[in-house]
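Expect sequence, tokenised fold; for instance:
***
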Amino acid sequence: MIRWTVFYPKTEGATFDHDYYRDKHIPVFAAALGRSDVEVTRGIDGPHEATATVTFESLDELKAALGKLDFTFLVNDLPNYSTVPGQVQISEITS
């Protein structure tokens, strides 16, 4: 199993619109992937303001899903919800 996560770090002076991210950005992102299981979190304590996570059966499945994305839209939509870009991590679930 492979997990794709976008982390939005808490940064002094940064803003993050959780409602827009959850209600506008993520539905477009999920639809582009053909997925309904994108998990979104709001950081309470720790280094991240928010995360979005999707789990895939394999790295090939992740690559195929990412091939469907319009990264231009995703990058251009960033100012609508955050002043800090996300950091992507791809992880293998080991247990």
